[in-house]
Amino acid sequence: MSEDRDLAAALTEVEQFVASAGWDRPVQLFALVRTQDLLAAQPSLAGELDTAVYTPIAQDPLPDQDVARGLAQVSWPDSVTGCVLVQEIVVLPPSAQEALSDDPAAAAAQAAEHPERTEARLVAGVLRSGPRACLLRVRVPAGEDELPLVRGVDLAPNLLDALELTFDDQG
């Protein structure tokens, strides 16, 4: 399955926006609306919006700090065509993952202290119509060159599933 270019562009825009605030940020959720629909509803924004197909709109913090529980409480009006979630994660090599506890809280603590951990910013998005996309920015030590963004829908399939569920049972 190839990546939807317009969704990929929206994820890149969101990542750049979030990156401008630096690291160690809370989970952020964005609604995606069609730029042309937004301009039709609010013509005064014409000078502020670019020509992208989708405009991301930052949302209030999730109603629950647990991402899965928080997303379970989210629903969107018909005007929202997609959504994007940004969260900082810890990535471990496969060999380290096998030794993690089955308890999610204990596993998170183990991962946070693991000597082979890599910190990253995960940006995941879905459109109501089905397309999905993810990108990942690896955190590098200060003074080192940024690494290229990693893209792929297989980066966070469970998170993408949870984002899709925010559109269930709606128009």
Mean pLDDT: 90
Listing every helix as H and every strand as E from the N terminus to the C terminus, the arrangement reads: HEHEHEHHEEEH
Instruction: Give the strand line-up of the largest sheet.
Output: 2-1-3-4-5-6
User: What's the total number of strands?
Assistant: 6
Strand content: 15-25%
Please report the distance between the alpha carbons of the first and last residues.
26 Å
Shape verdict: globular
Q: Strand pairing plus helix content: what structural class?
A: alpha+beta
Residue stretches low in confidence (pLDDT < 50, at least 5 long) are none
Q: Largest beta sheet, briefly?
A: 6 strands, antiparallel
Question: What is the helix tally?
Answer: 6
As a whole number of angstroms, the C-alpha radius of gyration is: 17 Å
Helical amount: 25-40%
Descriptive account of the structure:
The chain has 171 residues and is an alpha+beta fold. The protein is built from 6 helices and 6 strands. The chain has a 6-stranded antiparallel β-sheet with strand order 2-1-3-4-5-6, with helices on both faces. Strand 4 and strand 5 form a beta hairpin. The longest helix is centred in the N-terminal third of the chain and has 15 residues, at 5-19.
